[in-house]
Amino acid sequence: MMAEDIQHNQKANFNGLTKSAKSGASKKLTIKNFKDRPELTDSYTEDTWIKLRDAVSAIQNSTSIKYNLEELYQAVENLCSYKVSPVLYKQLRQVCEDHIQAQIHQFREYPSSSLDSLSFLKRMNRCWQDHCSQTIMIRSIFLFLDRTYILQNSLLPSIWDTGLELFRTHIVSDGAVQSRTVEGILEQIERERNGETVDRSLLRSLLGMLSDLQVYKDSFEQRFLTETNRLYAAEGQRLMQERDVPEYLHHVSRRLEEENDRVISYLDQSTQKPLIATVEKQLLGEHMNAILQKGLWMLLDENRVCELTLLYELLSKVKGGLMTLLQAWRDYIKSFGGEIVSSPEKDKELVQELLDFKDKMDHVTQRCFQRNDNFINAMKEAFENFINKRPNKPAELIAKYVDSKLRAGNKEATEEELERILDKIMIIFRFIHGKDVFEAFYKKDLAKRLLVGKSASVDAEKSMLSKLKHECGAAFTSKLEGMFKDMELSKDIMIQFKQVCVCVQGVGSIEHCRTCNGLSDQCVCVCVCVCVLQMVKLQEVCKLFYLGKHSGRKLQWQPTLGHAVLKTEFKEGKKELQVSLFQTLVLLMFNESDEYSVEEIRTATGIEDGELKRTLQSLACGKARVLNKMPRGKDVEDADRFHFNSDFTHKLFRIKINQIQMKETVEEQVSTTERVFQDRQYQIDAALVRIMKMRKTLSHNLLVSELYNQLKFPVKPADLKKRIESLIDRDYMERDKENPNQYHYVA
Fold first, then answer.
1. Strongest mean pLDDT among 62-76, 209-223, 622-636
2. What are phi and psi of 654, to 5 degrees?
3. How far apart are CA 158 and CA 117, in angstroms?
4. Pathway it belongs to (predicted)?
């Protein structure tokens, strides 16, 4: 119990006494006028003082008081009225001082064994409690003196403060007593830190005593903080070796909670800030780098949300903690993401892994790092850094990933889920520098989807275009949007072409032409065909018709994207086969003979070897086997022979036989990439000419600097030099004759 608590309780007990004394005196003892007062004589003064001294001694010795308390209170008032207050105050102080001086011997003579430290503390606390209660009782008797003479003399301490001063001077300030008291308190705190149970009320009372006596900081706090620093320095070193990071973090959190609880329970409030700072410094600050190096990557790999949240909260308390965590977080993202991007064998899963990784890091920033803007920006910077360490390839793979999601037959997601996937892809897309590579591959794949009607949803396609337009501007998507306009125009052209086919001699045996889709310079015919010669004739008619309507264009046929419907007779009955153009060419051969070798089919159709084997495999090894292969097997070899399967049966009348799709060839990838690089050269040349035309004369470094500001794709300095040399050779600019690092524009 602190001194303030004791004083409060004792005051409550004696307030009634004081009021009673005053009221009684007014009825019985109060002198109505000066003549009624007792005559001031040495004898009266001495007798009164003896009476008061005996009462004080009885209080100090915890014995009964012989006199009525009201009478004692009136006696003090009478003495003060006779102007003997200075003498009365001096005598009272001396009596109290003599008593306190006599108390010091019990502590000096107390056994010094460590086993007696707790009993020593209890005796000290009992002495302090007795002193406080005695001082309050004495003050109640001498209340008139305290409220008149002492109050009017600012240099004199009150009776309560006098009691504190005497106790501090004669007991607590004694070197041996103070040292033993503080050491005993520190020993009890250390035991509690080690898990033992201690008497917290005893510690609260003793530390309250030191605080009331104004020796708390000098005698206790400094030593306490020093011992705390020593304890946690050793503990931090030991536990960092013995425990893993999650366990260590929980230990630190528990220690901080314990120290805060000590402040609430018995330490002075002023100790909280330096105490917590000491614990944080020794358990966190000194081991911050070791904690991050040893545990951060493991916590992130295992997605330990609870421990990551705790790590963030703890390091936010340490100076420079969050900045150190931020750097380690950035390094982790660069390293982990770099492994995803730089591994060609993982190209198939690259985009999905990037999306999953981004989701995971977003979750960490939101749940663990309190959506800290610095951490969000660092994550974006790290993603942009590692994703562009492998130029062009991520852009190409993202375009192909989008194609796989927008292609018909993708049943992995609903429209809402698909929209969310596209939003996530756009986040990854923003990090890419070479967006022109993405555009080239996306354009090629979009053309295929539109030409063969393989787009899963027109709404999804337009939603993706809208996202690209918002991100990169209208110029980026103008050609892509043009494809949809071409598809609308091709419908009108198809109506006109059907009318032409009816009038052309030689194509009458073709029942009807289903579609002829065009995208500016590409055309795919999808027909119901009877013979190859008629297909060639129809193709020529289509070419003449198209070029007659669009002069100056070059018509490029895409035979791999075309398909037809063949009417076929089996033993079961008539069927319609929906097949690709190459499948059509192969199947039409069996109108002439029932069996062919691979070489015979290759010679007759002229289909490239790899494409031919995939075509035969789809007809003889798939679900709908309209051809039989000898010998049986999944792969097609040059020695294999094929014959028509007249026993083929199927529950449907129209059967779709899917062509085995060949993944994009290396040649196609190289061709698309080369087109991108060629376009980049044109853009670099155009930018150089614009800059020089505006500036007329410019140094090499300034020219390169302005060029980098205008270009939207990464380019190497060596490539820029080549383009500059090319423009000099073509007389668009020239070098200064005296300074080769300076260029002039040639009008």
1. 209-223
2. -105, 125
3. 33
4. Protein modification; protein ubiquitination
